[in-house]
Fold each of these.
Amino acid sequence: MKITEENIGSAGDLSAINELVSKCERCALYKTKTKDVPGVGNENAEVMFIGEAPGKDEDLQGEPFVGRAGQLLTELIEGLGWQRKDVYIANVLKHRPPDNRDPKPEEAEVCWPYLKKQIELIDPKLIVFLGRHAMNRFFPTLQISKSHGNAFRKDFNGRKQVFLALYHPAVALYNGGMKETLQTDFNKIPKIIKKIDEENADNNDNKQEQQKLI
Ligand code: SF4
């Protein structure tokens, strides 16, 4: 089935996105897939985690971040008192590159509209990048060594979106120091959400004040 950017843009909900991904032939990765890995979690999530691409375990199970790195991500989420079903987890690519090779730029480009639409539908308060590859798909000039752990606002999808970059859990698996950094950065998430809520409340108060003045 030929799926156009317009088809993806007019998807009404996440299950419509999943359906399109299951039929997608926009790049060659569909030929080697076992399962589709469009994303998993809460359609109304406040926090959306984004990695680069599914690996072997994800391709077999049809769910992102379920291998060893995924187990660490799950531990970190649960450490905040949340569950995976409270957040949304996705990748830039919806099908696995064979042998876990890096995605080709043209694959990431044709797959991009799916992620963009998922973000539009979920409308998360916070987007968390899992690793530099995912971050650089959005912001090619940022360096993870400087950006990790610092939330920042950028224009995205027509709004001021808040982002947070973290080291990839797979990197932390083999490096104790990195795991500590990841844990420290991860634990900032509730505070960042609280700050966003406070800022939104201030903005609403200001709007109401302005309306009163008018
Ligand atoms: S990786 Fe993305 S663009 Fe390529 S076939 Fe899968 S869903 Fe389509």
Amino acid sequence: MFNNSWEFSSTSPVNAVLMQPSVLEKIDQWRQKGFLSQAEACGILLGERKGFKGKEQYLNITDITLPYNTDIRKPTAYIRNTEGHQAYLDELHKQSKGRIQYLGEWHSHPQNVATPSSIDYREWHKTCLNFPNLPLVFYIAGVTEDWMGIQADQSIYLPKTL
Ligand SMILES: [Zn+2]
């Protein structure tokens, strides 16, 4: 069983993250069960920001984008392109009248227990520079265990362990 809700301590800019079951089902199809015989998958996390900024805020991940043919995908690396992902986000954003927004990034790892690489931390840092003061979710799908964290500016927040 994989988690689909996470709570954070009071020092975190976000109190909780929810992931809709349909999102987890999509991610499940891209887990690297074949380890290095499969390429990493990547996409963006989409959903709603609820509550007040910096206070009782929670994020509801309602959808994701899936790997697009312009993404560069290798067994232990990936480069997500904007093509496809951006168009999907724009469409949902428009349809929902702005309710559905960009919430962060996801990708898969050829590991049982997903752990971020130094490249992941570097890339997330770059991504966050484009969203000052806005907490983003970063999610890594492992084969048996996923990793998730929130990053706002320079700080990473990890969920409370259950
Ligand atoms: Zn990674």
